[in-house]
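// run 5 | inverse folding | seed 20
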């Protein structure tokens, strides 16, 4: 397969002044897309099958963009010239099926926004670590004096920034759901951190379908572009088989020396993208600790070296970076017990990374909406590090089934406050209470942020 030729049907973009752009979903990306589409002269209509949050309603009203909430008026939507879809809406949704049947192009906000900027992009995807790596990469580029924005799956929408800002570079965190509706888009620098089972309910429960979606990060890249990937990740290597790569490649590994890319040797990261221009840094100096964060730091470091940033700037930025909220966030130490908020761990692999970085006995709070999880990969770590599991979710049967032979205590709870109090009583001085759910949050919470914030509030009430 030649990655210059995207095998998915490439929709023709709508032209301003003669067409209606319909936006499905009125969250951050949808409202940003409405702002940009209106600015570019399109007739715009926004439709959200759910209830639109007040702040987004107010933003649409300020723009005088017509919208509907709690319904889809099919007649109006199916007359669109082009549809910009929220990443959260699956291809199986009835309205999407009808649009596809009519041949109406359905694209992501990222695809739409890129048409209207000449800025270069660093696009970061992966099942785990993409938020942290995106933030670290942005931190390094900003510290180096680049005129850079941060968007995608994080922060303010890409489309809104294209409408309102004039950045030379963007660091974009890109999910598989976004990639599914990106066609002509091209990353100047693409980063694929890893591929592990996640969101398989959206991909017919087939890992190869999900992996193929992740590989779209390299579509349309040329010999002038860069592709950065983990040479230790088996699923990434498998997904790359048979693909004719156009971009320059920069692998990274913690197990073997890499000639052009990054590797770990004697607890020191080595990054080399050009002959005689090596960057080295001891992992003890990194702000981000833990094996998974060595990978994240390597990926960001390669981006910086590809852009020929100064070693001093890279080193300083990697040493003083502060990580994202809800990702292995230290909340408090109470009665000698550490409380860690890792609510952003919405899949099994993220929880594996969290447990792998723990150096004490753990009381693990986990559970929520199970996305087809395979808990087998956690069993060894749970057996060796976890003294009790506190389930936080409406249906905890699969967690009980998976770990009943590995821990003595598994308790069911149905609120962050209850889970926190029980975990506190199960822990003793020197232990860690770790919220790392391995599941989505929508059964009991608005989102992972709400879950993390409720946990932090409950810890402070102890």
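// decoded
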């Amino acid at each position: 397969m030649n990655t210059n030729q995207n095998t998915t049907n490439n929709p023709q973009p709508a032209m301003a002044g003669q067409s209606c752009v319909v936006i499905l979903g009125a969250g951050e990306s949808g409202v940003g897309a409405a702002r940009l589409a209106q600015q570019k002269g399109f007739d715009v209509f926004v439709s959200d099958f759910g209830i639109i949050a007040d702040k987004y309603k107010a933003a649409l009203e300020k723009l005088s963009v017509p919208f509907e909430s709690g319904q889809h008026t099919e007649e109006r939507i199916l007359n669109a010239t082009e549809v910009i879809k929220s990443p959260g809406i699956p291809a199986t949704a009835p309205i999407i099926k009808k649009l596809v049947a009519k041949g109406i192009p359905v694209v992501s906000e990222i695809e739409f926004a890129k048409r209207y900027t000449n800025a270069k992009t660093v696009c970061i995807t992966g099942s785990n670590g993409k938020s942290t790596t995106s933030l670290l990469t942005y931190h390094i580029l900003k510290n180096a004096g680049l005129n850079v924005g941060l968007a995608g799956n994080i922060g303010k929408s890409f489309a809104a920034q294209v409408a309102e800002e004039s950045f030379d570079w963007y660091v974009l965190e890109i999910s598989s759901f976004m990639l599914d509706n990106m066609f002509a888009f091209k990353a100047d620098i693409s980063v694929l951190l890893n591929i592990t089972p996640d969101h398989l309910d959206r991909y017919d429960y087939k890992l190869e379908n999900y992996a193929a979606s992740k590989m779209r990060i390299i579509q349309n890249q040329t010999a002038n572009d860069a592709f950065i990937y983990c040479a230790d990740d088996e699923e990434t290597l498998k997904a790359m088989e048979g693909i004719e790569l156009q971009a320059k490649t920069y692998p990274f590994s913690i197990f073997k020396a890499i000639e052009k890319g990054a590797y770990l040797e004697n607890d020191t990261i080595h990054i080399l993208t050009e002959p005689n221009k090596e960057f080295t840094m001891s992992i003890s100096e990194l702000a981000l600790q833990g094996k998974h964060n060595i990978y994240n730091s390597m990926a960001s470091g390669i981006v910086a070296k590809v852009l020929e940033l100064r070693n001093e700037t890279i080193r300083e930025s990697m040493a003083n970076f502060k990580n994202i909220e809800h990702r292995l966030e230290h909340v408090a130490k109470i009665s000698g017990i550490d409380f860690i908020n890792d609510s952003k761990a919405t899949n099994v692999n993220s929880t594996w990374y969290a447990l792998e970085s723990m150096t004490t006995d753990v009381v693990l709070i986990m559970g929520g909406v199970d996305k087809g999880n395979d808990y087998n990969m956690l069993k060894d770590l749970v057996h060796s590090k976890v003294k009790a599991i506190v389930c936080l979710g409406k249906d905890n049967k699969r967690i009980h089934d998976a770990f009943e032979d590995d821990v003595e205590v598994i308790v069911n709870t149905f609120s962050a406050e209850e889970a926190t109090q029980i975990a506190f009583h199960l822990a003793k001085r020197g232990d860690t209470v770790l919220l790392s759910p391995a599941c989505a949050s929508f059964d009991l919470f608005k989102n992972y942020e709400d879950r993390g914030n409720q946990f932090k509030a409950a810890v402070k009430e102890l």
